[in-house]
Amino acid sequence: MPPETSNPNTRVAIVGVGQVGSAAAYALILGHVANELLLVDIKAELRDAQVRDLADVAYGNNSGIRVRAATYQEVGQCDIVVITAGSKHSRGETTVQHLYHKIAIIRGIVDEARPFRSDTILLIVANPVDLLTSLAQELSGLPKSQVLGSGTYLDSVRIRGLLAERAGVATSSIDAQVVGVHGPSEVVAWSGVTIGGVPIARWFPQNTDTLTDVANECKAKSQTIIRAKGGTPFGIGSVVCSICSSILFDKRDVCCLSHFLSEYKCCISLPVVLGRGGVMKAIDMQLDREEWEDLNETAQELKRTMERLKSDESQ
């Protein structure tokens, strides 16, 4: 028998059911995370086809999960709203134009879905995730603790996997976090990494190049996958499932997610305790001086970008 969900009426909405959204839905069904899965996409034919295909997964897995198409108004009444919708570069489109297009998509989705139920958790998966999470937090009207981004969650999973391979241990034995703004400027918090409670430096005392190689491989992995197949749907899908499970079952897992930090006035990734209310508690992470400087620099750059966007919109 499939495990019972935390509530007999839990609903998760996924907005955008392309590669990433459909992979997230697939993972949620296999994980028996919710009772109802609502799919939304501007491409009605694609949405309806995904509903039919994913319903077969639910039937075959004997999950009892109902998969159906939904409106934006229904989305706002769900326990969790996952926004994966984005856009691909159009021919002749500049990077700045592409960014503004993505911002317009997020703005449109949030505007259409409001008002959200007071306890709804909004999870942003679309990239640039920290910027779009910051924007969604401002637009949604929800408490800051209830607007999250996938941030560096997957990067933290990757760094643990890469270290586990080199150390010859299980991934679960490794405590490691990647923090900051998701992307090239993200920071591996090496000063706090342990394997079985033992500091990482004692595992690789003579070979600091190993750690550098691991950090570079972690940062480059997404781009190598995207170049080959256009996205990282399975990895992100599994992350969405883990995050939703932590929330709906109120697990109080510690994980790195993009969330609002008042000192920067934007959202970046640092460890939090994740539960039914979203961010239940921020973790006071111990970083060394260089790590804090790198984190601060990347956060300040995101803050400046947010300020430029606001300035452009006001003109």
UniProtKB/TrEMBL annotation:
Single GO molecular function: L-lactate dehydrogenase (NAD+) activity
InterPro entries reported in the protein's UniProt record: L-lactate/malate_DH, Lactate/malate_DH_C, Lactate/malate_DH_N, Lactate_DH/Glyco_Ohase_4_C, NAD(P)-bd_dom_sf
Domain Lactate/malate dehydrogenase C-terminal residue range list: 152-310
Keywords, ordered alphabetically: Coiled coil, Hydrolase, NAD, Oxidoreductase
Coiled coil: 285-315
Keyword Hydrolase assigned: yes
Binding sites annotated in the UniProt record for NAD(+): G16, V17, G18, Q19, V20, G21, D41, V125, A126, N127
Active site residues of this protein: H182
Residue ranges occupied by any Lactate/malate dehydrogenase N-terminal domain in the UniProt entry: 10-149
TM spans (from-to): none
GO biological process: lactate metabolic process
Domain of life: Eukaryota
SUPFAM superfamilies for this protein: LDH C-terminal domain-like (SSF56327), NAD(P)-binding Rossmann-fold domains (SSF51735)
Similarity field: Belongs to the LDH/MDH superfamily.
Name assigned to this protein: Lactate dehydrogenase/glycoside hydrolase
